[in-house]
Amino acid sequence: MKKTIFTAVLLSGVFFASCIAHDQSExxxxxxxxxxxxxxxxxxxxxxxxxxxxxxxxxxxxxxxxGKEAVAIVIMxxxxxxxxxxxxxxxxxxxxxxxEVKVCQFTFFCKMQLKKPGAQAWKDxxxxxxxxxxxxxxxxxxVKYKNASYYHAEYVHPKWSYSKRFVGKIDKHLFYExxx
Length: 180
Known about the structure:
By secondary structure, this protein is of the alpha+beta class. It is built from 6 helices and 9 strands. The strands form 4 sheets. The protein has a 3-stranded antiparallel sheet with strand order 7-9-8. A two-stranded antiparallel sheet has the order 1-2. It is globular and about 45 Å long.
């Protein structure tokens, strides 16, 4: 009789299972999973996770899971980049003054009155922030958007976008990376 060991792992509310046949040592092919691992060298603590969740909620709360995750990758790609802060919270709060007006990298941070998060969208944003800080990303994001470091809403046309390489569109956001 062949002995089979079954294991299951819970990750952001999704169970991943693998079967190991005792005599074959077969593992589930990672290519079949919807997640890939990419570790960013960033501070990973509760404060940073909350900052990331807030950014995902206020910048992409009405977007799909992929849309939220694409915003997360932009934030993570900026952490520690040349001229950028070395923490997630620092990147999100980064601002500069233009003609005596405070201009934030992430619009929600400049607003004084933020709406109270809706329960499901806030939970989704927290779950995604937690998952990406554990280094698990949707495969679809990593294939095309892994180098994205800029985005904007589709209804605006910032001057900086002409100096960047367009990567793609997810929901209501357009994503860019530096030109090679």
